[in-house]
């Protein structure tokens, strides 16, 4: 399956809408995910980011509009193939665990790919080290600390070379180390030519790591462009979307304001 | 860590609530295998709740679950059968008192399996006899029909217990054996 | 009670006796009070009259779309139908020799009495399910528990425990869909809907679901405690579920239905008492 | 920083004395070993520590969940207003010590938002006439007034977290334990919450313990700082400003977030050749001073 590997725009959402229980959660959202790019998604609580991610990954069906992968609508893809291409990290790490131990959790998708047991062991060990979960391999995923759960759920998805990775708030609850490591891990994936989508509330990270940012408000796309120019949009605009520019951008604006006077 | 069976804290009560709700809800499901008899997977739940939380929790969960189900399906409670559900669970829960038995921490040995099966079968037969007797004594049901009913129900319940209940408890114990970090080394 | 998921019971339609707004404990008591005398009757007329009136009450005063009601009632209908034919063809009771033969094919004989009994049996089953549907479809479990605590003095500790259990039932569906999604994103694929894979599904989801429920029961208990729950009896309930004159009217109405049923069959001379027939 | 204005003689409200915690009989290393800390009246104490060091477990010890509601092995003692928790029903302790758990997904016991809050208030024997109002207040505080009748499990992550905060505040506890209350909130709401908690603290005598990785919204309100290390022991207890000024290297190596302003300051000063203690940049090959604009571009 090599078709479309060089595709610069692997995933595209076109006028996607979704409603549930009579409430429109996502309305007519259109944007594209590009290869080699780290796309940040931001927006208020309850704006519809997580729902949008579920739509992009094909776990939910849009009530209108379509999502297409390599130009082919998601519904036309075979389930197994789709999952090999799109990885997905849920907002609640516990929702993603399918096995009883940390070790098995990391080995799960490796085993599905029929790696030899020694190969699996090697890879799992290196993941354990990379995500600082050593000594926890026999624990149940549910008895980890919240931050460890988050790292485990990310690690389990990183173990695959999926072309598109959708992450819902991958860094929350992490200490400085872990968060930076996670983000640079994701950045490295993007630099390798893969597509990464990160939902986050951390504007410093958006500033530092993202190539492009999409702002969701009330279920529709409000802004789509580089982070730098987002900060220079009117204050009212940012305020309504619950965004606070990173501290450096704030200072820059303050300086420029002074210069203008 | 196993707790005393008479400890009644909020957690026990919530467990009873869940057990009862699950038992009540799954009691609707039955695969009819003959006149007046059906394989009720719900019996397996009694085995699980009894084994994991002891006879007292099992008894109350079974009783309340049965009463709820009766109320929802027919509006009348067949107390004999409701108590019977509780007694079944209580007998299955006797295994909880066995030494070294602790499926929540993955400790479930061969001799426990044997014991569990014995307790379960005895419990099923005894409770059905009790329900039958209760019906004859208090509800004025004719006795000849009940003999057939009790025998058929015993057989079908024992089948469910052996095919679903016992493996489920073993599955639980296995699952937890791996998760509790040190007991794997034994 | 099947409405837990939607969370809302009793929308715009208003009638004088809104079943959804009645006191659940009183409603339950009324249903039981109806079932008790009706379980003594064993003739199609009493039962059919009561059944028809119960259904009428459900439709008039309950706010249930009739399609939904039919959907939920249909399994009972099918069951009753099957029950009718088996009882008619293979009567368990000794049939009086003087009973009129309706028709026969070879050894299979259908007598009038057997038919009569079969009709009573199946109608009885329908009546009890209609009564319990009336209760189930119009009762919010939270309100039921509140009313059990307020009217029947059920200890809050037990009531909230059961309520927590009830809360889990609709959540199980949610949990199952979450688990299915988890398996899907992890690449395990979907399980097709064939009988054979049912066992596979049971293995994949059954024990984890139960394990999840048990884990959640601990967390729920911790959550209840950390919200200050001690289980002591004194509470000033925010939502009061009062008993009003409407509950009395409803009880009277339902008892009248029973009386009408009995009266009718007495007038027609068909009244017969139940004797443990099956 | 508020340190200067602090009255020195605030009385201790919650004292934890050499707490050790094991969750399993046969666990080799304990989750917490000999943790002592004191919360003073009306102060906001910030608890920092690397991931998995036992911060959340500590909060559960402070309100008596460990060992009174969940079996576990706890040594040492916790005193609230001079009284130990032993023999007390953990539910009663919870009425004094309110908590917001870290996991927003599994800390609710009712179906809808309103029922959840009403359940809390009924537990503290709040008279019925007041409950409605207090629910309103609590929801307004977390900007969730329009979600009053929603089912909790259908809310988004951030909305659930707000419900949890509202529930804890509705109890009007004397001591409030906040375990990463803003981790799922959008930036503006996080800042707003910090401000509101501060405002509440001026109105009510509530003593707060805060666990948070992202310090920015909270920094100006923090009175005291407690830092834990990987092994589950307390490393530093005292003035926050002092810690970030003098021991920031230590903090960084332990994986503790610095407030972003501190980080920016350090980066700027480093690039301007003012690195304290470090080797000064070589005269000839010194990079041009990094401007804020450069920082943004990177
Ligand atoms: N299962 C559901 N049923 C009904 N409504 C839902 C459901 N799940 C989410 N919603 C609603 O849809 C809206 C968007 O939810 P979503 O989880 O996508 O938000 P979000 O942008 O991810 O927010 P957050 O930043 O808080 O995670 C919210 O108002 C939420 O209450
Ligand atoms: N139920 C449990 N059984 C066994 N070990 C546990 C259990 N809960 C937590 N632990 C372990 O105790 C340690 C401390 O967990 P805790 O949740 O207190 O960490 P934390 O400091 O809050 O971390 P984070 O910042 O990631 O939330 C972790 O290493 C975790 O693996
Ligand atoms: Mg979300
Ligand atoms: Mg924690």
From TrEMBL, chain A:
Residues 11-243 form the ABC transporter domain. Keywords: ATP-binding, Cell membrane, Membrane, Nucleotide-binding, Translocase, Transport. SMART domains: AAA (SM00382). GO terms for molecular function: ATP binding; ATP hydrolysis activity; ATPase-coupled transmembrane transporter activity. CDD domains: ABC_cobalt_CbiO_domain1. The keyword Transferase does not apply. GO terms for cellular component: ATP-binding cassette (ABC) transporter complex. It is a peripheral membrane protein. InterPro entries: AAA+_ATPase (IPR003593), ABC_transporter-like_ATP-bd (IPR003439), ABC_transporter-like_CS (IPR017871), ABC_transpr_CbiO/EcfA_su (IPR015856), ECF_ABC_transporter_ATP-bd (IPR050095), P-loop_NTPase (IPR027417). Belongs to the ABC transporter superfamily. This is ABC transporter domain-containing protein.
From TrEMBL, chain B:
Keywords: Membrane, Transmembrane, Transmembrane helix. One of its GO terms (cellular component) is membrane. The keyword Transmembrane helix applies. InterPro entries: ECF_substrate-spec-like. The chain crosses the membrane at residues 12-31, 43-66, 78-101, 113-134, 146-173. It comes from the Bacteria. The keyword Transcription does not apply. PANTHER family: UPF0397 PROTEIN BC_2624-RELATED, UPF0397 PROTEIN SPR0429. This is UPF0397 protein. It comes from Paenibacillus albilobatus.
Automatic annotation (TrEMBL), chain C:
It is found in: Membrane. PANTHER family: COBALT TRANSPORT PROTEIN CBIQ. InterPro entries: ABC/ECF_trnsptr_transmembrane (IPR003339), Cobalt_transport_CbiQ (IPR052770). The gene is ykoC. Keywords: Membrane, Transmembrane, Transmembrane helix. The chain crosses the membrane at residues 45-62, 69-90, 116-137, 249-268. GO terms for biological process: cobalt ion transport. This is HMP/thiamine permease protein YkoC. Its main location: membrane. One of its GO terms (cellular component) is ATP-binding cassette (ABC) transporter complex. It is a multi-pass membrane protein.
TrEMBL record, chain D:
Residues 268-298 are annotated as: Disordered. Residues 14-256 form the ABC transporter domain. One of its GO terms (cellular component) is ATP-binding cassette (ABC) transporter complex. PROSITE patterns: ABC_TRANSPORTER_1 (PS00211), ABC_TRANSPORTER_2 (PS50893). SMART domains: AAA (SM00382). InterPro entries: AAA+_ATPase, ABC_transporter-like_ATP-bd, ABC_transporter-like_CS, ABC_transpr_CbiO/EcfA_su, ECF_ABC_transporter_ATP-bd, P-loop_NTPase. Pfam families: ABC_tran. It is found in: Cell membrane. This is ABC transporter domain-containing protein. It comes from Paenibacillus albilobatus.
